[in-house]
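REQUEST FORM: STRUCTURE PREDICTION
Request ID: SP-0412
Submitted by: Lab K.M.
Chain count: 1
Length (residues): 209
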Amino acid sequence: MWAVIPINSFLKTMTRLSEILDQNNRIKLTKMMADQMINHLINIPEIEKIVLLTNESKWVKTHQNNKIIHREDKASMGLKENINQTANWLHQQGVKQMLYLSIDLPFAEKDDLMELINQHTQGLTIVEAKRDGGTNALIIDLSYSMRFQFGKNSFERHIRTAESLKIKTKVLQIEGLSFDLDNVDDWNDLIDRNNESYLVLERFHEFRK
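STATUS: Completed
RESULT:
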């Protein structure tokens, strides 16, 4: 199984948090969450490779690990098409399964990722974003030629696409993978929570202006 993590240009990251975080702090926050996710994946034996889909090549080089592969994000295309092309490329390499993950999952733990991996048996296994109906994480068997549907209401559209192709689908509720940090309401929810995750909430308070 290979993992794929798309990471926007740091200059454009977390723009919906611009009301409360300046650009430098949004970049620091993005790097912190990305580093946490990468470290979790490196320590999961089932993950053979981690594809960082990004144009931030200098940052990628800070991660010295033979599991990591850098693939350029084609800026002319949206997330959906970039992931579709990456999945096709993985299939051509002989990869059997792909794990897609958002990086904006501050409460994601290694155990959450292991639960997702262990629960996957066949077809599509998917985790819904708690607030907005997006897709925070999924595993797909690449033998199925399913086009990804990232964007608004992507969770329901992924489900419908899988159904139309008669792909066995499993929907999981995994708290650490369901909460994504997308806007100011999410930020406030994050700060108000009692933290039981690897990330200590005090670190998030440092990002306030």
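NOTES: Residues 195-201 have pLDDT under 50 and may be disordered.
Reviewed by: T.R.
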